[in-house]
Automatic annotation (TrEMBL), chains A, B, C, D, E, F:
This is Sugar kinase. Residues 3-318 form the Carbohydrate kinase PfkB domain. The keyword Hydrolase does not apply. Keywords: Kinase, Transferase.
Amino acid sequence: MAKTVAAFGEVMMRLQVPGYDLLSQASTLNYSFSGSGVNVVSALTRYGHTGYLVSRLPANPVGDAAVTYLLKLGIAPTYLMKGGNYVGMYFLENGFGVRPSRVTYSNRQESSFNTAPEGTYDFDSIAKPMDAIHFCGITLAMNDGVRKQMKELAQAVKQQGGLVVFDCNYRPSLWGEGGYEKAKPHYEDMLELADIVMMNEKDAMFTLGMTTTQESRQAQLEELIPEVARRFDISVVAGTHRSINGDNTHSLKGFMYKKHTFTYANPLSFSVYDRIGAGDAFTSGIIHGELEGFDTEQTVAFASAAGMLAHTVVGDTPMSSERDIFRAMSESARDVER
Amino acid sequence: MAKTVAAFGEVMMRLQVPGYDLLSQASTLNYSFSGSGVNVVSALTRYGHTGYLVSRLPANPVGDAAVTYLLKLGIAPTYLMKGGNYVGMYFLENGFGVRPSRVTYSNRQESSFNTAPEGTYDFDSIAKPMDAIHFCGITLAMNDGVRKQMKELAQAVKQQGGLVVFDCNYRPSLWGEGGYEKAKPHYEDMLELADIVMMNEKDAMFTLGMTTTQESRQAQLEELIPEVARRFDISVVAGTHRSINGDNTHSLKGFMYKKHTFTYANPLSFSVYDRIGAGDAFTSGIIHGELEGFDTEQTVAFASAAGMLAHTVVGDTPMSSERDIFRAMSESARDVER
Amino acid sequence: MAKTVAAFGEVMMRLQVPGYDLLSQASTLNYSFSGSGVNVVSALTRYGHTGYLVSRLPANPVGDAAVTYLLKLGIAPTYLMKGGNYVGMYFLENGFGVRPSRVTYSNRQESSFNTAPEGTYDFDSIAKPMDAIHFCGITLAMNDGVRKQMKELAQAVKQQGGLVVFDCNYRPSLWGEGGYEKAKPHYEDMLELADIVMMNEKDAMFTLGMTTTQESRQAQLEELIPEVARRFDISVVAGTHRSINGDNTHSLKGFMYKKHTFTYANPLSFSVYDRIGAGDAFTSGIIHGELEGFDTEQTVAFASAAGMLAHTVVGDTPMSSERDIFRAMSESARDVER
Amino acid sequence: MAKTVAAFGEVMMRLQVPGYDLLSQASTLNYSFSGSGVNVVSALTRYGHTGYLVSRLPANPVGDAAVTYLLKLGIAPTYLMKGGNYVGMYFLENGFGVRPSRVTYSNRQESSFNTAPEGTYDFDSIAKPMDAIHFCGITLAMNDGVRKQMKELAQAVKQQGGLVVFDCNYRPSLWGEGGYEKAKPHYEDMLELADIVMMNEKDAMFTLGMTTTQESRQAQLEELIPEVARRFDISVVAGTHRSINGDNTHSLKGFMYKKHTFTYANPLSFSVYDRIGAGDAFTSGIIHGELEGFDTEQTVAFASAAGMLAHTVVGDTPMSSERDIFRAMSESARDVER
Amino acid sequence: MAKTVAAFGEVMMRLQVPGYDLLSQASTLNYSFSGSGVNVVSALTRYGHTGYLVSRLPANPVGDAAVTYLLKLGIAPTYLMKGGNYVGMYFLENGFGVRPSRVTYSNRQESSFNTAPEGTYDFDSIAKPMDAIHFCGITLAMNDGVRKQMKELAQAVKQQGGLVVFDCNYRPSLWGEGGYEKAKPHYEDMLELADIVMMNEKDAMFTLGMTTTQESRQAQLEELIPEVARRFDISVVAGTHRSINGDNTHSLKGFMYKKHTFTYANPLSFSVYDRIGAGDAFTSGIIHGELEGFDTEQTVAFASAAGMLAHTVVGDTPMSSERDIFRAMSESARDVER
Amino acid sequence: MAKTVAAFGEVMMRLQVPGYDLLSQASTLNYSFSGSGVNVVSALTRYGHTGYLVSRLPANPVGDAAVTYLLKLGIAPTYLMKGGNYVGMYFLENGFGVRPSRVTYSNRQESSFNTAPEGTYDFDSIAKPMDAIHFCGITLAMNDGVRKQMKELAQAVKQQGGLVVFDCNYRPSLWGEGGYEKAKPHYEDMLELADIVMMNEKDAMFTLGMTTTQESRQAQLEELIPEVARRFDISVVAGTHRSINGDNTHSLKGFMYKKHTFTYANPLSFSVYDRIGAGDAFTSGIIHGELEGFDTEQTVAFASAAGMLAHTVVGDTPMSSERDIFRAMSESARDVER
């Protein structure tokens, strides 16, 4: 049954060099608009839910282009506030084989979202209809104003009985030196408020400062995640382990911890066309499974297949329907559909 | 020695989304014109034969663009009749890795070809110079008018002493529910008229309703094809077995049954750039071998290499010369030619 | 104040040859989705209204692309029904100077919209919230099923107290020979239901069969339009006179007849980038003026400026905001805005 | 009635910078193949004639691309010989307004055409079916080998009773210093052989060294052309006077001298999209009129309209049908055709 | 004789929507790098001088792309310092006819140039070889740090005996409310240091607060500019009066005040392809004339023709050689150069 | 520490069909300018050296575009002489999988470089500042004039104490039949002059006519190269062994012979995007290592990684910085850098 979901987060303009050229070789860029929250909510609208983004954009041609793009992604514009002057941007140069892709950010601290004054959003009325809302650790890295808004909105949704989803998504370059210490209290605040958390053992160790004597990733995971869930009273913790293979394919192994039990998806290996945003597709799958009451096996398999398909699609934002994902769960590589 | 060949069939407009975008992401399409008969005849002109297409196109800018495209493919325009209003179209979205390609058809029942009234074509004069003519099961799926024309033209060419080639090419989506029963009598009519038939064991089982207790594809093939050849008095039956490998390469194993003997080509494995039309390249190789009097081993190896190369070229229509194919038969992956 | 508006009409896929190439010269097409109703409603959403399209699209990749495009245009998807198999298409080749542009249609009679069975739309619930609804003579030319739906929906909106807008838009090629006679009763039905009608003296003479001894366009207009308004009890009749100048600029003179009085806009002359859909921009301006309670001078000036700006924008669908149009009403050609 | 026509001439590869960039700004080129003879013959095939090009191209991918392009233009490949190594090329940078377009040639003396050895072409068998053949002063500027072939072929066609058409087309940069003296004897040879000649008063003065005391172009024309026609026994002399207007439009006034009488077309003024090859369109119109037996007024009007339309089409080669040209003769600038 | 010139200023990234699409319609952008100083110096290198830019760019892929672009423009990289994080950007949407072009800036206060700390540049060693250096009022609008650097560098060049060029170029949007008062003391400082000043009567009235009772632009100019020149001891004051004509062509009238005398260029009218940066082309012409010792008439005619040609070339940066400009001074619109 | 380096060689225009189309399928080309010397010097400027090219280009738009491109590649224009008429060109069609890439040359014997008369270059002043200079066997294949210039310049640099680098790079198609015999004396002359030589065992056997009874490539190498080094008194001989794997990846094993010892790099395997010019990247790495005084292990590892990365970048010319290459030496395939 269709639910009402939202995300709180920044809209970024992605400026991508076409093909495999470097920025100093090319003369054109492809642009689109995305963001962790954009990606998760847009994916959820493709599964049939009604999706909102709570954000702020400038009243100028760049802001208009962002709104138009979000409409195209199926996002309702109700909570897109107008104000400020800038949209955060990043440049993407595609890697090839042994040459990695590169992302270069423009100044996002001055963006309309990151400079939104108090009172920009009416959190109570936004929270009222929400069955679930998504937050992301990237937003937490921005500044005090945004952190305050983020926590207030999470609080408001929680009070109304909506699910609070938090994706840890720690980005070292955003927090700078000594970042883990700066980040820790804010992460703890969000974990206190969250019902569903996207994280793995690295977040527990680095951001929360937990320790383990285990050596394998899985053993570390299985020791630390239950502890986190207990400490912060989180119903669902989910995430993936990614590895990059010698032939440039990626492998993804999804997991989900719920009711004291770990469930693992079958590991998936696949060629990658556009890696950015694939984690958000996984998140959207976990949220969808929880909203729809899938059993745990189905949820983590659905989320993993959603993540896998997102690697095969152009752009940050997942484009698969629920039907596409179910089909991918049951099939192997196939010939043309005609 | 150059021969005169023709095909009877529809010209379709292919509208392809560039790169790996979906139709709902992109804003441009690449277009070209093709069709099973177009592909086979164009390939044969590249081997040095004179090639015609017997078809009907509208006298409007879309029809003119189709004619121009066929000219570019080396096809003589003599038997391209003018009339009707529409060209059949299909949209192609390229898959990537685990995400399959998708084909979406426009309405082709109303196309100039499929609405050609009786008397559109002068079959006797068309048949007169032909050394061989190609028909395809896709055309057989269209409607009674087209089926009647197809059989009349096959009859006329057979009477003049030309070779009749029939590619079974059963497409379930075109025949709809209960399709095999509807299709069977028409397939039997064409098999009665044909000298060279492209088919494999599945056609025998599903379309002709034959049964076998064998379990492997090859054993089924070797039981059923000789039976078909005998029953319909067919000199050559040829086809391929395709498999899709874990690393997204395809493997193709060509076979040919002639004078009570099966000949198999060495299986070929290769990366795929554009899969559509590759079967027609294989067919063109079988026809060329038969017209030129190649021995069976050479014919099936040539057809397989033609099929393989067609997977590496943009568009439905094969672009390789006879020399390109002979080189591919004798060589492995190589460095730049300079 | 924001109102709720809708249009009933077909969504067409526009396939445009880039630049000034002919279809037989090029190899790529730009595509978008439009339609008279799409254009009018999308323009109205840019002026701040909530806009719906009442239509039907196939549940396949082409239909999905159409829905995505309408979302991007700001149109709410609530009344876009799913069903049928095809989207109507047209090819556009841009003219240059003395060489006119050419439009070639694909078969639209088989489109999802034109084959929608009875019961596809729930007219009463659609009509309930509507302050205004737009219909177009192009739809009237399609077939009996569509005509019936069109009149039922107009009736339903009228009963709920919404404004019915009808744009005569007679297209000779769609009605065929003897078209005026076939069209007349249907036009009369729609005129009986309409509050605002887009037409000029030619519609009165050719479609309604009225006669006049006047010779100039303006005299004919001023004799016939009041008669039409009286006979069908129409509050507003509006339209334009277009002329094409020697230097390839176009001139447009908008008029509006309301409360027994003609009001004319100042004639506008301008260079043309994309002429298609500009009439719909004019219509959107008239509707906006009436919904907002502009005085007659302002309404017809606003509509004319909206029409003029639509000639300078890529695509069928107007892209100007209310502010852009007001600015164009008050200014002449200007330097870069920076 | 369809006639059989040919041209003798080089095929050039045109490498055009897209839009209005300079070669040192851009990174892509559009390419096509053309040539004076290509343009004239291709235009004639659009009017319904069968057209050949007598030329020589290398047996490599560039030569193959040229042949494919000529096929697309409707030219029969029968007399396209294979041999040599290179195709002549030129780069085109589009001017804008006061900035003129620029053409830069690659080395064409080494092209397959310009290095064709004696015996490359079988002139007698080529000449046999020809109703008319076209030659151009550009070819005459190449080298002794080509000049000899040109004159032999003209002789052969004349003997068979075909019309010999010669377009003077003197290009100063190809003949170098003292060019008029070098060129004169060769021009005289061709004029002796020609039935239809494209030239104007400047050719008479500069290439043939004739003198006049008249000052206006028209008076010079009317004094010199009859003298040329008498001296070389030419049935038809035709040409144009071009002027470039202040608003960047061009004006063209076509003339034709036949049976001791000058006939002038109405001067045409128009915007220019692609100026190159427009003279060849005019020539094709004169040849068509003569082959079809149009009266003189109709021929020169048809040729002028053909020339005008060629300025509005991308590429060197005219793309208009006979019907397009007749329509342009009877109409002024018009709205979209739909 | 080749001189050594420099400019001090920011490098901006220009992100331009191709064709006439809006940013909310398109999906690709063309990018380049420019700036008032970049444009002037690059133009001067095309006239044969050695040119430097004194600026600061980040050590990341965007900064690298900027440096590469400046190299391509002929600018020596010696004084391009590395540091900071961002490059200022602006988006450009091309207008068409009555619809004006739009420029939207990203946040440039945080750019590498605008955040360069004291000591970034070694002004004395930079100043030493310079025959002339260019500054611009846009830079003056940035912040105190940049203003200080600008004045120090001007001082250093003046002391070494180099010419100081200052282009007033007041941009209201950069100074904000009450901008003229804020700007005045800084403009006065720069005028004190300058030898050549680009300005017109509006700068005198608005920025310097001078008054006049004259009404025509020319009379105001002729009253105020001599006063400015005297007061600040400036040898050359030059500028243009631009008007936009009804047919979208622009007219430009250049003037130059030197040794108590006004010299005017013939007014030029022309079609405009890319208006941005054309003022810098005019400036480059004035500097070139002064460096080369042209007489006043020649200098102002050369500068005007340079400005005119810059309107016909893609991008902000002039691309004409000295020879192109001399040719444009002596000729009217011409046919293809071949 | 930054050194001063140069190369002597031709600048070629590369005209590449985009994607995987054949030249007879496409209509656009991407162009760039390169050459063995261009590639080596440009790579060295990315490592921080100052780089020159000694060559000759025409004073026309094609020559201007070449100069602009070389500037963009970081090459100083001081020794680019102006003269002659043509730039050598080659067409590149990308292969896919089993279909090899194809290179087709235009006539380069007539290029500005290959027709440079004696006295074009002032070798003594060019040689003076050079720490190293690069020559290539491709240039040696051109003609006597160029060979003479090449040897004179090598002599001049050697006398000034600069390093002479010679890359054997024997191209059979350039020398024609009996090429090895023709080439041998010229290769011997260059080897006498060279300090660093790029070659492997095949050059020793085929070009120098040496023999060996060894069978493996490595054993042949280790027998022949020391002999060559001794005979011609060469300090460093380096090169690679390339193999193409079944999955279309390439493997590269770099070697370096110095002070009587062979050093081998770890073999590298990688996917290939653009193979052309990768050998020049390896060469640039060897030169850089020698100029910077790297130890042998580091030099050959650096050169190999430079070669590997060049296969992943668009165009002939390497684009990696020293830092990129060091990172590639220490890392395996990685996720996005952000």
